[in-house]
Amino acid sequence: MEQKKKVFVGMSGGVDSSVAVALLKDQGYDVHGVFMQGWQNPHFECTWKEDRQDAARVAGILDIPFRVLDFSREYYEKVVAYLIAEYKAGRTPNPDVMCNKEIKFGLFYDWARANGADFISTGHYIRRDDDSLLVAKDANKDQTYFLWTLTPEIIAHSLFPVGEYTKPEVRKIAEKYNLPTASKKDSQGICFVGKGSIADFLREHIKTTRGGIHTTDGQKIGEHDGLELFTIGQRHGIGAPGGSGDPYYVSAKDASTGTLTVAQGEDDPALYKKEIAYHSANWLCATPDVAHLGFTCEARIRYRAPLASCIVYENRVIFDKPQRAIAPGQSIVFYRNGELLGGGVIS
Q1: What positions carry a catalytic annotation?
Q2: Number of folded domains in the chain?
């Protein structure tokens, strides 16, 4: 009798990874559940204990082995410290991209393979076709944006079963198996910030730079309490003078003077750029010829941003149409016909 392929599933305690376990078990795999414990912020409420309990309950119902891996120290060093350093440098990091690179498809992947796994699996909404990664069936839940750092080897040993379903279909599958996570709400925001704000978290960890708020024509309209707390395109916290007229949006930050420049109205040209630079590229497809002629594709400059046609060169991208609120530190991710090509970090 042929031995079943062993899969370690990263279980978050949510409905998506719960259903991934059910689907893989139905497909005949030898499924093992793993809950990865990350770093917990002592100053903010977090639901990790409830999430761990939910994951364990699902594992019990589906009758699979279950264990907890404590990655709290590594999570702080590789994800939290990265986030703090990036904000301190005036950039807008993406901790979800780093968590996937360093933890789920880094530490967890390495541990699983060392412990006899043929595959790892997660509840990500993404489809795999041989060595290619494709956008999910549910375009509203697609998470390819966060996985541009993967390698062909990791892709070959990863399974994404829920990517073939829509979110409502996933919840129905969970109901069919009487899983306690069937109606559980999706997690929102950054896990280690909890119900607090990123600004409150940053105030705990960095000394912020105070300064003036200026319009694009140089008029000073106020003061801010921390340049590092704002990101390009942000509206929150900057009201229009007298409470009337178009609101202000962050268009630029100057760390040398502490100046926060704001544009009035979301259609202000100062918020738009047609060309950007990027670094730390990773290509999942055969490496395209970006050094000389460039190649055409579509790109996404932040999660849920619409795809935009562009030409990609070695360290820069030129869009067909100007893009709004491009934030240094965020990921730019490239696609063609629904296939994830790769990505990089906006400079």
Answers
A1: 99, 191
A2: 3
